[in-house]
Specification:
Layout (H helix, E strand, L loop, with lengths): L11 E3 L2 E3 L4 E4 L10 E4 L3 H18 L4 H17 L1 H12 L3 H22 L6 E3 L9 E9 L3 E4 L7 H13 L3 E4 L6 H13 L6 E3 L4 H9 L5 E5 L2 H10 L4 E5 L5 E4 L5 H13 L11 E5 L3 H13 L19 H16 L3 E4 L3 E2 L2 E2 L2 E4 L6 H4 L6 E7 L2 H9 L3 E2 L1 E5 L3 H10 L4 E4 L15 E2 L2 E2 L4 H7 L1 E9 L3
Parallel strand pairs: 7-8, 7-10, 8-9, 10-11, 12-13, 12-20, 13-18, 17-18, 20-21
Antiparallel strand pairs: 1-2, 3-4, 5-6, 6-24, 11-23, 14-17, 15-16, 19-22
Helix pairs in contact: 2-4, 2-5, 2-6, 3-4, 3-6, 4-5, 5-15, 9-10
Length: 481
């Protein structure tokens, strides 16, 4: 096992071995850019090839591992993450800038994700299919079973450096696949620390590699025919280009959005305000299902907006390591400056800033805008920032049409106590998930999660990811007659 001590760079996990490279990777602290969190290495081309070759070889082992062994490995990883909860939470807070309370929740979710992976590994079932539907097929029956697809290429993003990576590694292990994971360059130390836990958990040598790498080497990974599946979580522009270059491999894309929330006149206002503050501003809005567009019924507009602005004013912006902090920094100064440009554009187009709207280094104050044209960047693109744009509506159907008027379709929240409107939302909103009486930012790790339109392809959530990481095979049995 390798651990980072003091200022020593953390080695990278190459097919069961801890190695370094000539290409150092410095890991910045978003809250204090002058003082790096630590360092590691980018893999070289030769190290990448070694990892992929090892994954191909290890697949011959993992594909035949019995369910109880896969389950044991995953439970060991889950327990190992739980045992190092405080350490991992602090590391996420430091290198991702995520407030420590949220970072610890991410650690808990990752532990759950690996435990759920174990359970799914142990209940992968097929079915018996009667085939005697016509006379010529008499005496035949079909039995289906799922078989692991092969080595998996995983690319995970900075905003959930542990749990979104876990949603690639856990189902791969559960399915019997090997995996090479490219962690985010901005915060790779979290998954390199988890790699120590994976090593101790008994994963077969070569079955898991965690390799930070340059964008150029990542591009090679996307096109590499030795991988049978690519699982990418990140921006839509990057993800769809990857699909074009992925060749014959299967592709899962979990991309971005500009999630909408509808607050109907029958909503519980205090609950809707409380949840919207979290949905819009948690982790500085750097969540692909963060509340960005908000549609509030005209009859409750004044009351709701007054409470929302007051709630945003009371949010504490500051040091991610402070347990009282609600909103930490954005991932870097460039992200905050881009947000500033988008807000300035919205104001120039006639928008009003009710609160916030100003960058301070990597920090951006919680921001609420109104009267913004739908063509402004803050409405039409993914802000990935602590800002929300509010619009009044009088007709629920019109609010749904405005939510649907987007390139994206990940999740939508609908606050309503009108059962008919809840069903209308479920039936008519063009998204992967409709969250009734909560924000679109809600996710628990065993539910199917993913989007439509530009928001992605396929679904994550353990059971659904495992289906993508396996191929169905049928055996037809005929009784001679």
């Amino acid at each position: 096992m390798a651990t980072m001590t003091g200022t020593q760079p953390h080695p990278i996990f190459l097919a069961g071995r801890w190695v370094d490279s000539p290409d150092p990777l410095i890991v910045a602290n978003p809250a204090d850019p002058a003082n790096p969190v630590g360092s590691t290495f980018n893999a070289t081309d030769a190290q990448y090839d070694e990892a992929v070759d090892a994954a191909v070889a290890a697949f011959e082992v993992t594909r035949t591992l019995p369910a109880y062994e896969r389950g044991a490995i995953l439970r060991n990883i889950s327990s190992g993450i739980k045992a190092r909860r405080e350490e991992l939470g602090r590391l996420i807070a430091l290198e991702a800038g995520k407030p420590i309370r949220d970072a610890l929740v991410e650690v808990d979710r990752a532990s759950l994700t690996f435990r759920l992976g174990a359970e799914e590994a142990e209940r992968m079932t097929g079915e018996m299919i009667p085939l005697d539907l016509i006379a010529s097929s008499k005496g035949r029956v079909g039995i289906t079973r799922r078989f692991p697809i092969g080595p998996v290429a995983g690319i995970s993003p900075f905003n959930f450096p542990l749990n979104l990576a876990a949603h690639k590694v856990a189902p791969a292990i559960a399915a019997g696949c090997s995996i090479v994971l490219k962690p985010p360059s901005k915060d790779p130390l979290t998954m390199l620390t988890v790699a120590e836990i994976i090593e101790e958990a008994g994963a077969p040598a070569g079955s898991v590699s965690v390799l930070p790498m340059t964008r150029e080497l990542g591009d090679r990974m996307v096109a590499d025919p030795r991988f049978k599946l690519l699982s990418f979580t990140g921006s839509p522009a990057v993800g769809w280009r990857m699909k074009e270059r992925a060749g014959k491999k299967k592709v899962i894309l979990e991309l971005g959005g500009n999630a909408g929330v509808i607050v109907d006149r029958s909503a519980d206002l205090d609950w809707a305000v409380r949840r919207t503050l979290i949905g819009a501003f948690a982790y500085a809005g750097q969540v692909c299902i963060s509340v960005q567009r908000m549609f509030v019924h005209a009859e409750i507009w004044d009351a709701f907006m007054e409470r929302l602005v007051e709630g945003a004013r009371n949010l504490r912006v500051g040091d991610p390591l402070d347990p009282q902090t609600d909103v930490g920094p954005m991932v870097d100064d460039a992200a905050a400056l881009r947000t500033q440009r988008w807000v300035d554009e919205a104001v120039a187009m006639g928008g009003k800033v009710l609160i916030g709207g100003k960058a301070d280094g990597s920090f951006f104050a919680p921001t609420i805008l109104t009267d913004v044209p739908g063509t402004a960047q803050v409405c039409s693109n993914e802000a990935f920032a602590p800002l929300v744009v509010a619009f009044p509506f009088t007709d629920f159907g019109d609010a749904m049409r405005q939510v649907n008027d987007s390139f994206f379709g990940l999740q939508t929240g609908v606050f309503t106590n009108d059962l008919a409107n809840a069903w209308r939302g479920f039936n008519e909103l063009e998204v992967g998930g409709v969250i009734v009486n909560d924000v679109p930012t809600y996710r628990i790790d065993h539910m199917p999660y993913g989007g439509v339109k530009d928001s992605g392809l396929g679904r994550e959530g353990l059971r659904w990811a495992i289906e993508d990481m396996t191929e169905i095979r049928i055996m037809v049995m005929a009784q001679p007659s």
